[in-house]
Amino acid sequence: MNNIVxxxxxxxxxxxxxxxxxxxxxxxxxxxxxxxxxRMGMVAEKKIRxxxxxVAEVLGVKSKEIIFTSGGTEANNLxxxxxxxxxxxxxxxxxxxxxEHPSVLNTFKELETEGFTVTYLNVDREGFIQIDQLxxxxxxxTILVSVMHVNNEIGSVQPIQQIGELIKAFDxxxxxxxxxxxxxxxxxxxxxxxxxxxxxxxxxxIHGPKGIGALYVxxxxxxxxxxxxxxxxxxxxxxxxxxxxxxxxxxxxxxxxEEQKSKIDKLRKLKAWFLEEVTKQIxxxxxxxxxxxxxxxxEKSTPQIINLSFPGLKAEVLLHAxxxxxxxxxxxxxxHSRNSEPSHVLQAIKLSGRELESxxxxxxxxxxxxxxxxxxxxxxxxxxxxxxxxxxx
Amino acid sequence: xxxxxxxxxxxxxxxxxxxKLFEKILMQNxxxxxxxIGRFTIxxxxxxxxxxxVNELTDKVIQRLTMIPGVVSVSPVVRAGLDLDExxxxxxxxxxxxxxNGGTFKVETKRANKxxxxxxxxxxxxxGGHLLTNYPHELTVDVHNPDVIVYIxxxxxxxxxxxxxxxxxxxxxxxxxxRGLLLISGGIDSPVAGWMGMKRGVTIDALHFHSFPFTxxxxxxxxxxxxxxxxxxxxxxxxxxxHFTDIQKAIGLHCPEKLHITIMRRMMFRMATKVxxxxxxxxxxxxxxxxxxxxxxxxxxxxxxxxxxxxxxxPLITADKTEIIDIARKIGxxxxxxxxxxxxxxxxxxxxxxxxxxxxxxxxxxxNLDIDQLIEDAINKSEVLIVTSDGIVAEFDRIGDxx
Lengths: 393, 403
Fold this sequence. Notes:
The complex is a heterodimer of chains A (393) and B (403).
Chain A: E1 5-6, H1 17-28, H2 39-59, E2 66-69, H3 72-86, E3 93-97, H4 102-113, E4 117-121, H5 131-137, E5 142-148, H6 160-170, E6 175-179, E7 198-202, E8 213-217, H7 243-281, E9 286-288, H8 293-297, E10 305-309, H9 315-323, E11 327-328, E12 330-331, H10 344-348, H11 353-356, E13 359-363, H12 370-391
Chain B: E1 4-8, H1 19-34, E2 42-45, E3 48-51, H2 58-65, E4 73-80, H3 84-98, E5 103-111, H4 120-134, E6 139-141, E7 148-154, E8 159-162, E9 166-167, E10 179-183, H5 189-199, E11 203-210, H6 217-234, E12 237-243, H7 245-254, H8 260-279, E13 283-285, H9 298-305, E14 312-313, H10 321-331, H11 334-337, H12 344-347, H13 359-365, H14 371-380, E15 383-388, E16 391-396
Parallel strand pairs in B: 5-6, 5-7, 10-11, 10-13, 11-12, 13-14
Antiparallel strand pairs in B: 1-3, 1-4, 2-3, 4-8, 4-9, 7-8, 12-15, 15-16
Helix pairs in contact in B: 3-4, 5-6, 5-10, 7-8, 8-9, 8-14
């Protein structure tokens, strides 16, 4: 196989050719500023409206509830800070988990320096929060709970519906934000049933462009803007719209939603098959995150993320060794011995030191073929045993 | 305001017979390093070099010149006519540039043109008076220890006026001292060692040991970037990317873990000695400093040095880390050196590396290595990059092709 075997879809995905075409058209022809009064401005505005409808329709929400941002990080910042600073008069307590993406965790860390109190929910060894702990954490004055749907490193799927119901039963005014960047199009998502008030998605994880994301904000919420300017995006997110990005996101969302039904089951089977093979072919492999095959089918484990530890070697060396065969994966931690900080997620699920330093993530996409994983399996067992001998750990 | 640049190169003027050669090399190096800015007339007179008619490019050229080994200092020069009233005004502007907020000064006049009607002390007196009267801030004359000196050189057709002095690195021009091979890692020390070698006139080639997949492409990119920064001083560096993976593997498989680092360094020195021979380099240069890591104890150095028969220069051998970092900052390599990508030395660190190895132990630990074959294969798989301040300008698949 001469082609690239790209197995790092949770980092980013290739852009869908139709999305590229649509974006190029926006840059070459319909390049007007949507705020301009003339016809060219109107054309751009219409296209944005359509993209907003595309996203809203797939999420099952109203199109005015969609705010376009510069990506997942900004959307998460806007959701969390926008709620905290707007509703601080109701209380200053916030809840999240220890395994969130840095764009969520660091936003909460910052709010702690601004007078808010944050409860960080622990996860068990498979990466799930305990509903009882959430129950205990909720207090009068809890204004926001933010929980990621699918963890980007280990693929655990949080029981979002249970969480949403619990929050709203406790206090219907407590807001619920879900970072759905990894789950969107990979896991069932029903915003009203799950009682979600705010939800983040990102373009480049779903074969859309980088630099674009969207935040669903329930229309009843009055979000405090984090950027001030010309009043775009209902005055919540000022700045001239990234028109090609927005058009790309809208189309990417529509395209992937069409594919979801037919592809998701295939992806689940692929992951299940791979996990069985890899544990059969390699000694001493640890599956990080939900480990049983049933979890994949019961939606506790996302179909596209596989995280494995091969105790006895360093993940970064394995990553580079695979790279030599044009196979691209990622590691849970960079292993520069001088200032390495292993993944907070892998630490949260209490991996041992040897498991931590040897964890790699293989993330699949809708376009991943079984032959590609077979090709990986041709090389992985040999490399793992060779490196284990060499590194003598 | 400035039109010309005066370059001082103190040390090489002391070197008797070699002086002519050194001057020639320095002039060549200067030409090479400013060629992309423009082509200027370069003259050598009375142990100094002048760049003519640089005009508005003065600042840019001075910035380059002060990076060139051998250059002690440079001064931007105003060229004026012989008319006293004209160069009086120029002198005031020169003083204002060198001393913007007041202080002490003196005037020094040299009269090369003996036909000039006024004698040097007279010119000095008239100009001193003019400056004292017209300088807008507080100003006093101090003939012993002035803040600045305004130099007036009266020549046949014109007058040179200068005052500001910008220090260069000093040392000897690169090429004056033969060729050396620098063992470069991605760390802080080795680029500094290379720069110090350059400063003593050594033409530097560099050898980096690349051990993919034990080290990443990024660490190689980092070394290329460090080499590019060093090339700002020398113009051009030949960088050998040594294929070290198979040697690493062989050490990992066949040698006791405790001695991994020692044997790895011995293999590096063996390979470097061979490469130096191929490139006609007379010495190796390393960034070693006593006691910094396990392989840099005196005992380790003895065991490692034993495999080579050419001199190993260690410019930083007694420097403290803070001193090394100061130089790294000054020469612009520090920020790149601290990027967190692994180099050879940090993947294989055993739990307890030997700090006091013995030669006979190292030799015993190497019995299962086919040393000559490993080195030969590694050299055959190595590539060469020619790096200038613009980046890579040429690549060769074999070391022998890079001449």
